[in-house]
Amino acid sequence: MAYFAVLLRAVNIGPSLRVSAADLRGAADDAGLGAARTLLNSGNLVVTPGTSGATLPDDVARLVQECLAARLGQDVPAVGLSAAQLDAIARANPFPAAARDDPSHLQVHVPFGDVDEAGVARLDLANPGREMLATGAGVLYVHYVDGIGRSKLTPRVIDKAVGAPTTARNWNTITKLRAACAFSDDPAIREDTR
Of 114, 150, 166, 109, nearest to 133 (Cα)? Predict the structure, then answer.
C-alpha cells in the first residue's frame, strides 16, 4: 500500500496558525485519505490514498490543504512526499556524520516547487556562518553546526535562495516520517496526539 507524508508549513510555532493533531487527522478523513496518523505536534501527517483517488504526493497535499482551509477558515500550506521520496532524501543525505551525531541540527528544507541549485550555491558562497548546505533528492540539506537559533539562515533567506517557499524538518523527524511511511502498520510506531 502507498503511504504519503504531508508536511504543513509554519504551524504551531506562534499564535497565528494553530493546527491540532485532531484537525489534521480530521482533514485527512474529510478528504477520503486513509490510515491518518500524526507525528509530533508540528504539522506532520502520514496517510494512504484511501478513497480519495489521489495517487501523487502533490494531490494528497492539495486535498489536505483544501480540507484544512474548510475546517479552519485559513490557508495552511502543505507539501506531500511519497515513501520513495523520503527514502531518496535519506539516501542522498550529504551529511551522514551530522545525521548520526547531531540530528537535531541537520534540517531538510522541502520546497513547494523546484530547488534553484544556483541560488543555493550563491547563498553557500555568501554565507558568513559555518552552516553547511547541499542539495539533493529535490531538497536542501542544512547542517546548522552552531545551532539554529542564532543562524543568519532564516526561513526568508532560505526561501529566497531556494526560489520557492520551504518547510523544514530536522533529521530526527525525517527518520520518523520515513519509518512511519515504510512501516505504518507496525504498532511500535506510536501516534502522537498532543
Answer: 109
Phi and psi of 128, rounded to 5°? -80, -10
What's CA 182's distance to the chain center, in Å?
A: 16
Pull the grid cell for residue 109: 528544507
pLDDT in tens, 21-69: 999 999 999 999 999 999 987 799 999 999 999 999 999 999 999 999 9
Question: What gap in Å lies between CA 60 and CA 141, rounded to an integer?
Answer: 24
Given CA atoms 18, 21, 24, 30 in this order, what sign does their dihedral have? negative
Report, in angstroms and rounded to the nearest whole number, the Rg of the chain calculated over CA atoms. Answer: 16
pTM for this entry: 0.91
How many angstroms separate the CA atoms of 190 and 194, rounded?
Answer: 12
Q: Structural domains in the chain?
A: 4-83 (3.30.70), 86-174 (3.30.70)
Question: How would you classify residue 74: left for phi > 0, otherwise alpha for psi between -120 and 50, otherwise beta?
Answer: beta
Cell digits of residue 6 = 504531508
